[in-house]
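The passage that follows is intended for readers who have already worked through the single-chain material. We present the inputs for a multi-component assembly, then the predicted structure in tokenized form, and finally a short commentary. You are encouraged to pause after the input and sketch how you expect the pieces to fit together before reading on.
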Amino acid sequence: MRNRFMLAGLAAGISLLTLGAAQAVEIEYWQYAYETRVTAMDQLIANFEKANPDITVKQTTFPYDDYQTRVIAAKAAGQGPDVLQLFYGWLDKFQSGGVLQPLSPTVFPHDAIEADFFPIVTAMKRGDDYYGLPTAVRSLALFYNKKLFTEAGLDPSKPPQTLDELVAAAVATAKHDDAGNLISEGITMDMAGQDHQWWREVLTRQFGGVPYSDDYRTVKYGEKGGVEALKFYTDLQTEQKVGQTGFMDEGQAAFRGGMAAMTIDGTFRLGSFKTIDQFEWGVTELPANADGTRSNYASYFANGIGASAQGEELAAAEKFLAYVSSPEAMQIWLNVVGELPARKSAALTDANLADPILSPFLKALDYAHTTQFVDEAGQRQVAIDMANRVLLEGQSPADSVAEAATAEQAIIDAAAK
Amino acid sequence: MAQGAITDGTASKGRVWDRFSIRTKRVIWAWAFLALPIIFYGWIRFYPTFQAFWISFTDWDILKPAQFVGLENYDKLVHDPQFWKVFRNTFTYLIVGTPISLVIAFLVAYYLDRVRFMHGFIRALYFLPFLTTAAALAWVWRWIYQPVPVGLINGLLSQFGIPQQPFLKSTTQGLPAIMVTAIWAGLGFQVIIFLAGLRAIPSTYYEAARIDGLGEGAILRKITLPLLKPTTVFLVVFSSIGFLRIFDSVYNMTSNDPGGPLGSTKPIVLMIYQTAFSSFDMGYAAAQTVVLFTILLIVSLLQLFVLRNR
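Having made your guess, compare it with the prediction:
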């Protein structure tokens, strides 16, 4: 009797379970682990689940260094996420490898995307299809330590606006000990950080060249601009002695520690710099050259839909993607992570434009370029090696740039094969 | 015995087991127990090894199906300057690192063996780094090697008015700087093994030698070193393989430009890792792995041959 009763209970339980499964869809969201991004996404997921009680979203994160491997390995094993975050520069690899599926034009109409988002969104388009939408975009700016500026007798409300002023400010703020060792940097030098973008898309253009052909398939910095740009950069260490590669390990660490007066970094650093309490810091646009030419590098992480999402999971994934690309989500992302909204209407509000920290980044979006990488890590390594050959081996900037141009062209050609 | 069991007509046909002798049963039991690890080992180690040989002849990139490309990957390898650089680096780690670490370990063990005062404590101090995670050690050393005002060594140097050294940021000092930490990290293990080897030599030999009037130098040369040969062989092979496979200390000490400036500290394993998991060029990575496998095999066989017992 008792047994039969238990059996009935069990059967009822199982039918309840299956009923529950039919109603609630669980989708999986992947991004790399970065504290503020995970917090922001947790908030977005909570809001989304409240509005869509029949959908649950499970967030999974991996360390950045491991992230691409995980995505690709999961695709190979046929167990990819339903929605995933990707750097725009990985799109070629992910799209050709079948990690992503194109966004349905009925759910995400192209004319609406192109009207509402900043133009750099087109980097997510291949052929006639979009493969993802960004929540936030990032650009670069010059961060400066107001305390060190004041100590050096500079006006902390007038940060450098040209390259000459930048060098002058760096010379004034750099500190050396009696033996001539640098103990506090004027400006950080970290090619592995954002400096390679600064050199590639900003300095090269300011010295009269272009980094690549318009389709980013031919390296052009070897012809004009690149050499002068590299010389300007390496001179900061070898001639003016205001910065040093590897000082405090990373540029951002030196700035955080109050041991660097200036550093070039992106919007994504705002969240972590906001916790600095030993000194006040400010942000200004990347310095212009003597002719007043400015440039910047803008990039973004987009969210795309995994190739394996089908049926009701696909519908849920589309709903989720639409929500994380909505103006509301962008505002949350801006508040928590500090990255700029990818929609013009959400970004260019009066409040944002009046914000002394956000406005330099927002202004930059007008004249920013977005490098189309085929192998981001590989192309960055080319730039790191190029600077190292000059700084460590005494190679001339001209030879080093020529060598880098050949090496990078080989990477681009190999990817096109 | 066995004969008797078979001719015994009372044994039922179904009970085959009873017909085996105790000796045979023991062998069967032994193989039954051994089979499990052998199958497991074959499956997780030998099968992937052969798989790697096959992948090295393809252009597999994980995402697209593999296509046979013959010796293309090996051809690329031979003409890749980066490969020859990491090849040189790897052998520098091996050829410089192994003898230095063994000589230091032997000297420490030889003198530690004679120390009675706080013997256990000193031994524990030497062994401690071996117990620590390699990644944690590497990060500590990474900061020790920093320029002033952070780095410990450069701080000391500049106090004595010596110009500071770039260490890991240099193409010439990077590799030795990493080698020092690798030697230091492995020293404890080698010291313990040497100590055990020294203790295993019967003291009667030493007593006889002293009675015969042999000096300390002669005792070391004629008795200690020859009798320590099995220990030395083990450590040479073990340490060589360790240096040929060096990865974690290099990767963690130079993670913002993996393999040091211009690849000056990059060992072959790091190149394999980057080819496989940054570029996802699995075929090319497998070809590098096959080369490393061959090197490891040759070096191990060569050492066993040279140091064999005659």
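Commentary: The two ends of chain A are 72 Å apart (CA to CA). Chain A has a mean pLDDT of 90. How closely did your sketch match?
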